[in-house]
Amino acid sequence: MRIDSERLRLNFDRVTDISATKTGCTRFSYSKEDMKVRSILIEEMKSFGMEIKHDFAGNIRALYNPDHLQSKSVLIGSHIDTVMYGGKYDGLTGVLSSIEVVRQIHNNGIKLKHPVEIVIFAEEEGSNFGVTMIGSKFITGKIDESYLKKLHADNGMSAYDIISECGFLPFDADQPRIDSEHEMCMIELHVEQGGVLDSQKKRIGIVQAIAGMVTLQVTVEGTSNHAGTTPMSMRRDPVAASAMMIDKISGVPEKLKMDAAVTTVGKINVEPNGSNVIASKVVFNVDIRDVIEENIKEISDFIKELCKETATAKNVNVSIIKLGESNVVHMADRIVNTIEESAKQMNLPYIMMNSGAVHDNAMLNGIIETGMIFVPSIKGISHSFYEETEFEDIIEGAELLLETVIRLAK
Ligand code: GLV
Ligand code: MN
Ligand code: MN
């Protein structure tokens, strides 16, 4: 069955036009851009009879159940938030394709034995609070009120307060969570965000495992002073110390001979951030990932140690906390097999692969069966203005999602 490619293209344009900047897409969860996109998509989903619900965190759940079935739902969807200056396709591909999937099921009057639900997860990227997958962690009961009260945006407001101001649903209301009693499985379509499919000229990746991650927050404190009058030997400079730490952190996977592991420092705050001022404080986040669980722990411990050693050598103070984490997860065989059978039937060239990016889907793993479909990212670029995917590949991915959903729900 085909999906409506013109409609899909139109929706990509409508949504990406609503971004905070033209230098790529900046659409953080809970921003005014996010709110506008939500209302457009909700209207669209309602137009073919979907029932819309929210939870406190701002996850949108849209149920397609015209026959009022009592059976477990098949979930599809992804996220609509972006990183700063992000691309058009990360997250949005899965959300807009899911809407087209349900539209086709509806327009073709396909009788299902299971409801289909689109989930649009909030704050997947962690752009507000430095922790990824807040929505899917919330919907699966992995984080609570006190966690959200402790988590802060750069402006000092807590996640709890920022989300409360959006007024989705009060915290203590009856929150619809995802559980194995009501939901059967989740299949997420996403752009690969790496270069494997593009370099192998394959159109579809069927995901077997998603890398785990840990985010550390490192705070380095020194003594703020005058940049002109303070001799080099009398400084306690947290910027110089942090620079040394960050350089060493980037070499850790190689040093520990962990081929697939990656470490990234992409967020740094300097206080007070003046060019003629020796800073008082630097706070930076370290993103650590691998598909081998034990490696993540080993790298984390190694980084904590090297930061302490560097701090002693540079006469500054350091403290390190774990901001967030997610485990390595393996997709359910039944879902992987169903996607594979569908791809074979559609004559789509596919490969089996792992995901280095994390996805909301990983949070549902262990609660319900999960699976993921990847389409190629040109040159493997993502979280960037230069993120690109051939539109034909998105259509193939959406049609594979449709076929898979029908097999699972019929
Ligand atoms: C989410 O996009 C991540 O992998 O950081
Ligand atoms: Mn994503
Ligand atoms: Mn992303």
Tell me about this structure.
Helices cover 35% and strands 24% of the residues. The longest helix has 21 residues. Helix 1 packs antiparallel against helix 3, helix 8 packs antiparallel against helix 10 and helix 11 packs across helix 13. The chain is α/β, with parallel strands linked by helices. The strands form three sheets. Strands 1, 2, 3, 4, 5, 6, 13, 14 and 15 form a nine-stranded mixed β-sheet that branches. A four-stranded antiparallel β-sheet has the order 9-11-7-12, covered by helices on one side. The chain has a two-stranded antiparallel sheet with strand order 8-10. One manganese (II) ion binds next to loops.
What are the secondary-structure elements, in order, as H or E? HHEEEHEHHHEHEEEHHEEEHEEHEHEH
Quote the average pLDDT: 96
Give the number of helices. 13
Query: Low-confidence spans: pLDDT under 50, at least 5 residues?
Result: none
Strand content: 15-25%
Task: Sum up the overall morphology in one term.
Answer: globular
Rg over CA atoms, rounded to whole Å, is: 22 Å
**SS content category:** alpha/beta
Summarize the biggest pleated sheet.
Answer: 9 strands, mixed
Describe, in short, the structure shown.
The chain has helices spanning 5-16, 32-47, 92-107, 134-139, 145-150, 159-166, 196-200, 238-250, 252-255, 293-313, 333-345, 360-364, 391-409; strands at residues 51-54, 60-64, 73-79, 116-121, 183-191, 204-210, 212-221, 225-226, 262-271, 277-278, 281-290, 317-326, 329-330, 350-355, 369-375.
Descriptive key words:
single chain; 410 residues; alpha/beta; 9-stranded mixed beta sheet; 4-stranded antiparallel beta sheet; 13 helices; 35% helix; 24% strand; globular; binds glyoxylic acid; binds manganese (II) ion
